[in-house]
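Lab notebook, page 48
Experiment: co-folding of the full assembly
Goal: obtain a model of how the components sit together before planning crosslinking
Operator: M.T.
Materials (sequences as entered):
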Amino acid sequence: MRNTDILIIGGGPAGLAAAVGAYEAGARDILILDREERLGGILKQCIHNGFGLHTFKEELTGPEYAQRFIEKVLAYQIPYQTETMVLDVSADKVVTCVSRKNGLEQIQAKAVILCMGCRERPRGSLGTPGERCPGIFTAGTAQKFTNLEGLMPGKEVVILGSGDIGLIMARRMTFLGAKVHACVELMPYSSGLKRNIVQCLDDFGIPLLLSHTVVDIHGREHLEGVTVAEVGPDLKPIPGTEKYFPCDTLLLSVGLIPENELSEMAGVKIAPSTSGAEVDEQLQTSVPGIFSAGNVLHVHDLVDFVSEEAMKAGANAYRYVQGQLPQGGRKVPVQMGFGVGGIVPQFVSENAEDKVSFMFRPRNVYRNAKVIVEMNREQVLSKKTMILAPGEMVNLSIPVEKLKGLDKADSILVRIEVPEA
Amino acid sequence: MKYELTCINCPMGCRITADYDGKEVTNIQGFTCARGKAYAQTEITDPTRMVTALVGVEGTHVPLSVKTQTPIRKPLIFDALSEIRKTVVVPPVHIGDVVISDVCGSGVNVIATENIE
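Observation: model returned without errors.
Model output:
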């Protein structure tokens, strides 16, 4: 059996940054496994710009952003194996994988970093009635066709969901000569960035239909059209508001799901609010020596934060290998109060060092609200905000000095306080 | 002429209205910060956009991703796209290599955003 100190599953933005983070912390025995032909993950197909403003202070396209990290991995001579599919991860960190080159093999790692990213919610999870005809794609699949394969999924397009990938694809399809008839959003607000709404829809006169959804799909041999209806406050379609849109392509941008099948095989506990691993402030999962970072841990809004998180996971994995990461202390649970969804980390160790970072998604749009952190029912942080929205993650960083009595705390609460009307 | 736009600087997405007579932007309203006011000014008088697109690569169906080196004037987007679409490059090409110089007389180069060997 092969051995390695740190094995990283996934060579996308998280895996690359985890490798760089581990190397820069001192690790020299690292291996990245990726199932695709090339490193870079989803960034390879995100050819639009807007990546890296936080990390590099410039706006890069996805492939350019990925290349910055790939070049570091090459410069550090970190080994990687592409076209290699991981089949199993055990709690004692034996990773089973298969590739054409090496066949089936097992690798014993001292630490594993889970960087598998996420996948798109498919049509099947929506329960939309209608024909099961060709012409229906997730937005990311269509993006792969157009940007990596040079293929066009169709010419007359309707987009369901107004997440950023859907908005970006509205512009891409328009650029490639298709007509995008509408972007249909169930919620009364878009979860996409304002910039994308303006520059991907408004610029081309594509209507954004808020509080609307697709209620029927038509076409036997191929998609011929969809029926769109308005929804009420209960998100149920309002009878009589149906409108037919002829189209040959329906793109779905209706959410992302962290890919945690391997994590579960290793016995890693999954948090319901993120669908990712439960981690402490070191990004260590419930299984000692297994770490998680990036979109497999929780779906991020910006790749910069994926890189930052993964570099931290990489450095901590190396400290674990060296026996320098404090283990076994009591874990203080982090609770989500009003307006807070998908918090990470779910636990803070009583012996936490330096500073503790929290990330979460607001459950709704809140104006002039405060983000409050309490420990033992005492306020340790209060931050005023102009606007909070589900599309933008909130980042909080608290120095441990401010968490006095952490060793005796029963919980930490993060909540949003909205001004009284 | 009356302009109505959405500020893109933050999730507030302020609805900004303003008048423009072809020379001067006046009566800017609805912004909540200086960035919003500045955005309205440039977005009305000289809107620009980064354009990212794909060019053909000789000998393969896999396209190469490219971008305008700096934003180009918004009315030039579709002309630039059709010039980009007609372009076929011969490998090797590296990030930053000029694929089209001065696209559509915009004064801006189109450069590669990925490597192809």
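Interpretation: The first helix of chain B runs from residue 34 to 45.
Next step: discuss with group before ordering constructs.
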